[in-house]
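Final report, closing paragraph on structural work. Over the funding period we assembled a curated collection of sequence-structure pairs, and we close with a single example.
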Amino acid sequence: MYAVVETGGKQYKVQVGQTVDVELFEAKDGDAVTLDRVLMVADGANVQVGKPVLDSAQVKATVLGHVRGPKEIIFNYRAKERYRVKTGHRQDYLRLRIDEITA
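Its predicted structure, as stored:
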């Protein structure tokens, strides 16, 4: 059984027991969170698709912690103008463990 959920403006395909890194939202380590924007739930041949979301479906997860993504290097360069700027960025994520999918 798997589900497609939307959080932080992105969609994730999740299964029970899976860990997933999602966009940061307000939660503490060890908290139980419920993801209500479930777009699709599939269980074998039985597939339910929302228009746009399924009202009766929920995905329950546990917050494992706050993590940071890999460092992205941004390098701006303009030829023949002696202009070079190197900066970096690391995105903050929230690591979730999927505990239950209810349809």
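Residues 2-102 form one domain. The mean pLDDT is 96. We thank the funder for supporting this effort.
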